[in-house]
Design brief:
mainly alpha, 54 residues, elongated, 0% strand, single chain
């Protein structure tokens, strides 16, 4: 899957302050999940497995 980076940039710039904070918060949580998945494979739960498959 390829992203349309220019369109994504315009969408992010059009966000309001609260929406931007929400986006940053959700991306931070997602990054944390990816890091746990990558560096703590012994602690992978069915919950995280499901999140990455959906």
């Amino acid at each position: 899957m390829e992203l349309d980076w220019q369109h994504l940039q315009k969408e992010i710039q059009a966000l309001g302050r609260q929406e931007y904070r929400e986006l940053v918060s959700r991306l931070s949580v997602l990054l944390g999940h990816f890091l746990k998945w990558e560096y703590q494979p012994e602690q992978r739960s069915h919950f995280l497995h499901y999140k990455f498959l959906v």
